[in-house]
Amino acid sequence: TETGKKVSLRIAKAGKPHTIFEEPYLPLAKELTRIMCGEKSAKQLDLLPPLKDTVTHRIIEMADDIKSTLVERVKMSRCFSLQLDGL
Questions:
Q1: Is pTM beyond 0.90 here?
Q2: How many Cβ atoms are within 10 Å of 62's Cβ, its own excluded?
Q3: The organism sits in which domain of life (predicted)?
Q4: How many domains does the chain have?
């Protein structure tokens, strides 16, 4: 979903562990859902797959997309330079 992708992007940009959302925010999301939509809707959040797997998958997809975009741009360029830093 679009919301899930935005959450994954924020977690990736923060450079934090993928479980950061599950610890403080998932219980809060459940409570807010319970208040706004009722117990039945809140229980549906328990059916979600483990977030760490979903976030990991989405971050890998974003990285692959960035890589393929970069490779495509290099292929379309007439010339390019590559700078390697020494160790």
A1: no
A2: 14
A3: Eukaryota
A4: 1
Residue 39 lies in a domain: yes
Q: Is the pLDDT at 67 greater than 70, yes or no?
A: yes
Report yes or no on 38 lying in a domain. yes
The DSSP secondary structure of the chain, one letter per residue, reads: -HHHHHHHHHHHHHT--GGGIIIIIHHHHHHHHHHHH-HHHHHHGGGSPPHHHHHHHHHHHHHHHHHHHHHHHHHHSS---------
Q: Alpha-carbon distance 42 to 40, whole Å?
A: 5
Does residue 10 contact residue 64 with C-beta atoms inside 8 Å? no
**Full residue range of the structural domain in which residue 42 is found:** 2-68
Is residue 11 a contact partner of residue 55, using CB atoms and an 8 Å limit? yes
Answer whether residue 76 is part of any domain: no
Would you state the pLDDT for residue 35?
93
